Amino acid sequence: MSRVVRIHTSSGTTGIPTVIHHTQADLDAWTDLVARSITATGAGKPDIFQNMMTYGMFTGGLGLHYGAERVGMTVIPMGGGNTRRQIQIMKDFGTTVLHITPSYMLHLHAMLAECGVALKDLRLSKAYLGAEPYSEDTRRKIEKLWKIDVYNSYGLSEMNGPGVAFECVHKNGMHVWEDVYGVEVVDPLTGQALEDGRQGEVVFTNLLREATPLLRYRTRDIAAILKGSCPCGRTHRRISRIAGRTDDMLIINGVNVYPSQIESVIMKIPEVGNNYQIFLEKNGALDSLTVKVEISSGMFKGDLAQIDRLKERIRESLRASIIISPRVELHEPGSLPVFEGKAKRVVDERVKI
Amino acid sequence: MTHIQLSVFLENKKGRLYDVCSFLGEHKVNIRALTVAESDNFGVLRLLVKDPQRVAGLLKGNSFVVNETEVVALEVNDKPGGLAKVLGAINKHHINVEYMYGFVEPKARKAMMVFRFDDPVAAVKALKADRIKVVSSKELGSI
């Protein structure tokens, strides 16, 4: 224990946080991997990096912080929250790169107008998004709203934190730094290894760590190892974006549904705004699913029938994807709960059996 | 001869109507005419105000979802059959009414009706030819 220089915990996605110990060598190796990740996105010394991830026990904040310093970026250690101040700082310091959750990135955009800041007042060119699963459509939406490149970042406290896998400039899957992390994808039920291209539970072995060595650690994250090589020339294999977690699967009237399926349907609809919530309750013996969706302010044409049609369209698209027909509620932009750290989009009020 | 009506999307939440009205009050905006259309978890508040573009900007700046909709205001005799006469003319010209709502103009002892037509400009032309009194922006401002 005398060689342990820092303690982190997991964000407690499954309930009880896991404690991870680090020696100085562990921290140095981690920092190198984050620096490598940042370099892979084309960022470097000239960049001004605003870190909006929570600092503290959560690894998202400090992990990127030290990696960004090692690359030589100018680091603004903001941490999460205080949206108005975040926007002001982005403007005043000419921030070029952000580290942030996807849900907070969307919220931040909605707040720009309120703060009287336009995109042309900012110098933003990149954002590293992680800490919660999000769909490819959400990425495209954020890239379009902000006119920037969004890079997918993956990590978990048990494997240090961010910098386990990261997208390069080609943005087509995250390179797993296999010189440090052994990666496998297994069938979550049988534990059998799956071939590349098949989706399953991701399992990691940390090959370097001194203080908390973990062998074949089951992440509960669902993804696939991508086949083929990346045009960037790196030989580290890539994993797909995280489709969900083995433990966030919802069983609704006997049908298995991942929240990510719902997200990928609604974020394809242009009239949908920046936030949504999945609400489950019991209606007699049956489960009832309500999807609450914020509309985008530009879509409103003053017409009630248009809104009713939109609701019906969302309901139909969801039914086609998840089989269940949900109730759809439309809300004003900014009215659903906002999360500065990991978003908790599922509210399940069914009584647990 | 058309007017800009502000349509505000409001979710059906306690105090939301008060939020808009108190906001307008704080900014010294007087509401000339108003109606609410409602669906299950949301409604659309329709308003006629002086200087609608400015008011729309104020509302949008405060995160309200606002659309500017072109409407026509017609003068209606405030006596039995007054509205029927106007609707008769509308009907004759095959003009489609999406919705309408009324308000009273105290000075002129006339009733006013706000109409949302699918083609407001053509509607104004046809109704004027039929001697239906179309209320101008100036007259509306003076009410």
Describe the strand arrangement of the main beta sheet of chain A, using strand numbers. Answer: 4-3-5-6-7-8-9-13
What overall form of chain A do the CA principal axes indicate?
A: globular
> In percent terms, what proportion of residues of chain A is strand?
25-35%
Greatest interface and its participating residue counts: A-B, 18 and 24 residues
The overall pLDDT of chain B, averaged over residues, is 88
The largest beta-sheet of chain B arranges its strands as: 2-3-1-4-6-5
Supply the CATH architecture of the largest domain in chain A: 3-Layer(aba) Sandwich
How many domains in all of chain A? 2
Give the number of helices of chain B: 5
What is the overall pLDDT average of chain A? 91
Q: In total, how many beta strands of chain B?
A: 6
Question: How many runs of DSSP E, i.e. beta strands of chain A?
Answer: 20
The dominant shape of chain B is globular
**Rounded to an integer, what's the Rg of chain B over CA atoms?**
16 Å
Helix content of chain B: 25-40%
Name given to the CATH homologous superfamily of the largest domain in chain A: ANL, N-terminal domain
CATH topology of the largest domain in chain A: Rossmann fold
Q: Please identify the structural class of chain A as seen in this structure.
A: alpha/beta
Instruction: Note the main sheet of chain A.
Output: 8 strands, mixed
**Beta-strand proportion of chain B:** 35-45%
The CATH topology of the largest domain in chain B: Alpha-Beta Plaits
What does this structure look like?
Chain A is of the alpha/beta class and 353 residues long. Chain A folds into two domains: 4-245, Rossmann fold (3-Layer(aba) Sandwich), CATH 3.40.50.12780; 250-348, ANL, C-terminal domain (GMP Synthetase, Chain A, domain 3, 2-Layer Sandwich). Chain A contains seven helices and 20 strands. An eight-stranded mixed β-sheet of chain A has the order 4-3-5-6-7-8-9-13, sandwiched between helices. Chain A has a four-stranded antiparallel β-sheet with strand order 10-11-12-14, with no helix packed on it. In chain A, helix 1 (24-40) crosses helix 2, helix 4 packs parallel to helix 5 (136-146) and helix 6 (259-266) packs across helix 7. Chain A is globular and about 65 Å long. The mean pLDDT of chain A is 91. Chain B starts with a strand and ends with a helix. The model of chain B has no long low-confidence stretch (mean pLDDT 88). With 143 residues, chain B is of the alpha+beta class. Chain B has two domains: 3-69, VC0802-like; 71-142, Alpha-Beta Plaits. In chain B, a hairpin with a 4-residue loop joins strand 5 and strand 6 (110-117). Chain B contains five helices and six strands. A six-stranded antiparallel β-sheet of chain B has the order 2-3-1-4-6-5. Chain B has helices spanning 16-26, 52-61, 82-92, 120-129, 137-142, and strands at residues 3-11, 31-38, 42-49, 65-77, 97-105, 110-117. The chains are: A alpha/beta (353), B alpha+beta (143). The interface between A and B is medium-sized, with 18 and 24 residues.
